[in-house]
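Case study 2.
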Amino acid sequence: MISPLNFKLIHSNGQVYDMHQLGWWVESFHIHSPNAIRDIQYAGKKERLKRTRKGSRLVNIVVQIEQSTLKRLDEQKHLFFTAFLSDDPIKIVRDITPDRHILVYQEGSYDIDNLTDSDGVFSLSLRMLEPFLFGSQNQLSITTSYANRTVTGQVETPWVSRTVFPAAATSFWLEKDQVGRISLPFSFIQGDILELDYKMRKVTLNGVARPELLSMQSRWFDLKPGANRMRASHATTVTYVERFY
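Prediction:
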């Protein structure tokens, strides 16, 4: 029998820990609400909202482990510690939503609460520094004419782009109508591959970082859920990952 709350842990090195396959029973799994951090200013006797940012979110889980002996339980306890510890974010994919995932870190310490000599319960909190549920990776084909490109999800999202130059060109630009424009006044040659990374503010040409190519007048932009009116000087593929609350 599989717990309806079962999930998998996927480490950055590809190691997978499936709670059910390990014989671990997931008793509860709770993702806290978005963490709205408000910066309030006081003007006389009135309060004014200056800024809002999204803080990290907690994930509380309870997992029960049953074994035949105390020694076996102790071995499983230390395997559990290994499964949830990493310096890199750990991906969690739940069986009930296999098309979405979260990224978590273990924070602090915890121990097993023994029920008997051969079984016990872990209760621990994990932290989502990126406070979103991530969905599918999608691509947008950007042409030289303005057109609305639909971005799915619930939250604004970063993106990466890839442009392969079919012929020599004296510049490149990618823009979102009345929002932002990224310009590179550079002499490209046929076959050049240009990649832009919004989140890292990174410009790469043929696999080599080239930050100096970016015009000082460039203004980066994210992608909003819904219609995004965009165009580029050359056919460009923009890739993003859905974000949800």
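Helices lie at 70-84.
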